[in-house]
């Protein structure tokens, strides 16, 4: 029995994934599920590059504004949500599009990750919530030195979850892949290095003009701690530091630009490991449509 098709549009930041996805969804009865680890949060709009209502062009979008910024939204949460939305879209005889740049989110769907079934431990979490990042890292190093070397050491929520799993199981097990109920066509977008860096620089300046600093200040005014804002990364981290007078505006822009370029490089490193991804320049819409037609016939 032929599996239902799910189209994935992925790539580095600033490569035009959202615009392409909307154009393709209009042609192939598509509905879009965002695979972006920050766009799930309410209020993270300008900094996360969240698509606007106007830009959606009446194409249904899911995976946006799901939880408050104080809530931790995990890859396991995304996987459960995305599979549910895929089924709903298919039930309407439409095509699901997974669109974004969060590699772990995308791979959890494509490879149908089997995740550790370890429930939250409220007592342990309460003990750990006020620990410093350094203290959490040391605890994880004792429990699982291998995991401690690969985790994001700037994210206390991920550290606490890893400690929680390691406390329960004795270690953090590697993610296991399973066969998927769907067929995936993974389309990767890329730009030449110099062009991408220029787009990143200009996009940061445009977002600053459109109120990105005010967005971060409003989030803090509405109860999101500076610590949590810094955990949300990139724009939110360095603007939060600027608003706390830890760095100047010029330092904030320079650091944010450099760190975003580094982030884009890490994104490509992650995606390049998957040989199933078909890569296209951002303006090769015709060639991309040809690949979709091939797999749909």
What do you see in this structure?
By secondary structure, the protein is an alpha/beta fold. The chain folds into 2 domains: about 230 residues, 3-Layer(aba) Sandwich (Rossmann fold); about 50 residues. It is about 55% helix and about 10% strand. The chain contains 14 helices and 6 strands. The protein has a 6-stranded parallel β-sheet, with helices on both faces. The longest helix is centred in the C-terminal third of the chain and has 24 residues.
Task: For this entry, give a set of tags.
single chain, 297 residues, alpha/beta, Rossmann fold, 6 strands
Structure summarized in a few sentences:
This protein is α/β, with parallel strands linked by helices and 297 residues long. 53% of the residues lie in helices and 11% in strands.
How are the elements arranged and paired?
Layout: E1 4-11, H1 17-27, E2 30-34, H2 53-56, E3 61-62, H3 75-91, E4 95-100, H4 103-110, H5 122-128, H6 133-143, H7 145-150, H8 156-169, E5 182-190, H9 193-209, H10 212-221, H11 226-231, H12 234-243, H13 249-272, E6 278-281, H14 285-296
Parallel strand pairs: 1-4, 1-5, 2-3, 2-4, 5-6
Helix pairs in contact: 3-4, 6-8, 9-13, 10-12, 12-13
Report helical residue fraction.
Answer: 40-55%
> At CATH's second level, what is the architecture of the largest domain?
3-Layer(aba) Sandwich
Mean pLDDT: 94
The total count of helices amounts to 14
Please state the oligomeric state of the protein chains shown.
single chain
Cα distance, first to last residue? 15 Å
Counting structural domains, the number is 2
Strand order of the largest sheet: 3-2-4-1-5-6
By CATH, the superfamily of the largest domain comes out as P-loop containing nucleotide triphosphate hydrolases
């Amino acid at each position: 029995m032929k599996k239902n098709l799910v189209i994935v549009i992925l790539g580095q930041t600033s490569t035009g994934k959202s615009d392409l996805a909307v154009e393709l969804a209009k042609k192939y009865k598509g509905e879009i599920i965002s695979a972006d680890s920050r766009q799930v949060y309410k209020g993270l709009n300008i900094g996360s590059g969240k698509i606007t209502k106007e830009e959606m062009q009446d194409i249904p979008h899911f995976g946006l504004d799901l939880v408050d910024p104080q809530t931790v939204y995990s890859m396991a949460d995304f996987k459960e949500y995305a599979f549910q939305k895929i089924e709903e879209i298919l039930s309407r005889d439409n095509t699901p599009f997974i669109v974004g740049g969060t590699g772990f989110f995308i791979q959890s769907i494509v490879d149908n990750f089997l995740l550790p079934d370890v429930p939250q431990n409220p007592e342990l979490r309460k003990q750990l919530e006020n620990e410093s990042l350094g203290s959490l890292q040391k605890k994880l190093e004792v429990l699982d030195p291998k995991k401690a070397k690969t985790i994001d050491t700037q994210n206390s929520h991920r550290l606490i979850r890893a400690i929680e799993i390691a406390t329960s199981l004795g270690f953090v097990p590697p993610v296991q892949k399973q066969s998927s109920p769907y067929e995936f066509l993974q389309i990767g977008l890329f730009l030449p290095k110099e062009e991408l860096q220029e787009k990143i620089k200009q996009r940061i300046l445009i977002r600053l003009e459109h109120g990105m600093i005010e967005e971060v200040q409003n989030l803090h005014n509405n109860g999101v701690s500076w610590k949590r804002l810094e955990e949300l990364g990139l724009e939110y981290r360095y603007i939060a530091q600027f608003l706390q007078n830890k760095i100047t505006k010029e330092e904030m822009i320079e650091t944010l630009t450099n760190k975003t370029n580094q982030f884009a490089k890490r994104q490509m490193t992650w995606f390049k490991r998957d040989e199933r991804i078909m890569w296209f320049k951002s303006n090769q819409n015709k060639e991309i449509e040809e690949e979709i037609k091939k797999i749909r016939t």
